[in-house]
Amino acid sequence: MRSRDVIAVTALLILLVLLFRIAPGLAAEKMGGGATFFYHDLDFGSEAEFNPLSSFVNYSLDTLQLSDNFDFHDLEHRFRLVMKHLGDPQSAIDESGGFNEFVNRQILPIDFDNLRDSKEMIPNYALHLLGGGLVFRKNAEWLRAHDYSHPWLSAAVLSMGAEVLQEVIEKKSTKADDEVADVMIFRPVGMILFGNESIARFFAEDLGMLEWANQPMYRVHGGYLSNLGENYVVRPSCFAYRQHRPFVYFGMTTLVGTSYLIDATDSVSWGAGGAMVDAARNHIRIRSSFGLFYDRNDSLLASAIVNSTEHLVLRVNVYPGVIGRGLRSPGIFVGLGDEGDFMAGLTMSLLPAGLAAN
Question: According to the model, what pLDDT value does residue 6 have?
């Protein structure tokens, strides 16, 4: 065995040992506990639009923001391919360059001559493990709050279903081992972590982690979905200074800035960073982006992002509760394309997607 392979095997064994060291503690504590950290039963803002159906749509279709890389074409063939790779992960790993390549790209940077390849693990940890874990717990909390039986099992089934569908959509531009890492390692580990009450409390209360999804719209002219995006926010209270907290917004767009607490309930946040515009394997492209956000009780009321994904130079979302209250209050989307094309749409809080027109 080559020395690099020895390093890869050793690194993976260490990761597995750490996981098994954590697992007994997680099993000892009842899955989820009785606390609610991420779901808040509010009739305004992004929280008013959250339910397991809208969550499934937002998570599974998130990467359609990059229409040049991911799409709905030939889903039957892609589904069979994903199932083949998940059914025989060893062959999928071998097809993608072998075990050492898999570990270096997907799990831990162990090949210092090819560290650039390790950038593929960033979304694994940020979006599939942390984001996927949060979404799993939030779904379970919603199901429990609405008196559904077996909320944690149901949330797990929904989460893994959304994960597999996302991998099928992405199959146009991903390697064979991508779904092995996401479906078999990162999403399940994220669910285990956020199923633990102490860990969930840390992310919710100490790090101030939230989910701020966009409002998906079906574009009448063209017949496709727009304004997609599953986004997460971290505002750690441990680094707060007076009314200011650090602000990190991540998903297909990553922004870093500051959140200012206006009063006991309302905050305005801003961040600068980059939005993904091309996720091709050999020429990932990101453009400078800026975002402004207004929230109440951690529920997003309005946002504006300059240089967003989907070839939008401006993306504005106004959530239910800003204009009117309750079920009749609409969510509003306005987008301006890079080529000057304008679109606008409306949605209602009970619907997983609204309607938009040019």
Answer: 46
Tens of pLDDT, residues 221-264: 878 889 999 999 999 988 888 899 999 999 999 999 999 999 99
Whole-number Cα distances in Å, 40 to 50, 132, 142, 223: 9, 18, 8, 33
Measured CA to CA in angstroms, residue 28 lies from 9, 16, 140, 190, 196 at distances of: 29, 19, 19, 17, 10
The CA distance from 139 to 155, in Å, is: 6
Question: For residue 60, which of 41, 45, 79, 77 has the smallest C-alpha distance?
Answer: 79
3-state secondary structure of 351: coil
Listed in sequence order, the residues at least 6 apart from 71 whose beta carbon sits closer than 8 Å to its beta carbon are 64, 169, 172
Q: Are strands 217-219 and 354-357 parallel, antiparallel or unpaired?
A: parallel
Judge whether 38 and 134 are in contact, CB under 8 Å: yes
CA 133 from centroid of its chain's CA atoms: 9
